[in-house]
């Protein structure tokens, strides 16, 4: 099993602004039609490697595109999803299917999300595919107070997945 440092070096991973490490591995040459939801157009799809370690987490954020997480290697991840209607889901991304984990999870556009290793985990190497493709213009980090006010039943996980 590779170490965290080996994964970072061999996959050319960099610190991600939301937490963890990443490297973009694909960006479609095709773009969406300008003038629609994205006036300047977007790549039709993008993909990254994404690494979580015990001292990192994916801070609560929102995208205007759907995002699919793919589990590759390591330990299970727990992901919080906050929906506009007030619901929240805590799902697990991993390979223990009998325990409810799934090796692939979808976060629909405009759903707040954050993730961390399950307690005791060493690392998780994931892939993230975004369609239409990821652009930082379509990304926003969440503020703890705002998220807790809208989803009080998820306060503990929101607190764990925010930095303010």
From TrEMBL:
Gene3D superfamilies noted in UniProt: Jelly Rolls
Residues spanning the membrane: none
Domain DUF985 residue range list: 6-141
InterPro entries named among the record's database cross-references: Cupin_DUF985, RmlC-like_jellyroll, RmlC_Cupin_sf, YML079W-like
Pfam short name (any one): Cupin_5
Taxonomic superkingdom: Bacteria
Coiled coil start-end: none
Name of the protein this chain belongs to: DUF985 domain-containing protein
Lineage, uppermost ranks: Bacteria, Pseudomonadati, Pseudomonadota, Alphaproteobacteria, Rhodospirillales
């Amino acid at each position: 099993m590779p170490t965290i440092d080996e994964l970072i070096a061999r996959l050319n991973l960099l610190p991600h602004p939301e937490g963890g490490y990443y490297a973009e591995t694909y960006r479609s040459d095709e773009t969406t039609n300008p003038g629609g939801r994205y006036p300047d157009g977007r790549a039709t799809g993008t993909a990254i490697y994404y690494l979580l370690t015990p001292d990192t987490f994916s801070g609560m954020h929102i995208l205007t595109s759907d995002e699919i997480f793919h589990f590759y290697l390591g330990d299970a991840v727990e992901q919080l999803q906050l929906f506009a209607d007030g619901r929240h889901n805590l799902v697990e991304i991993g390979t223990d299917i009998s325990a409810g984990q799934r090796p692939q999870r979808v976060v629909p556009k405009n759903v707040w999300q954050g993730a961390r290793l399950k307690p005791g985990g060493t690392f998780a190497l994931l892939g993230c595919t975004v369609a239409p493709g990821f652009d930082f213009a379509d990304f926003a980090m969440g503020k703890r107070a705002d998220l807790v006010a809208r989803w009080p039943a998820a306060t503990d996980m929101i607190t764990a997945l925010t930095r303010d």
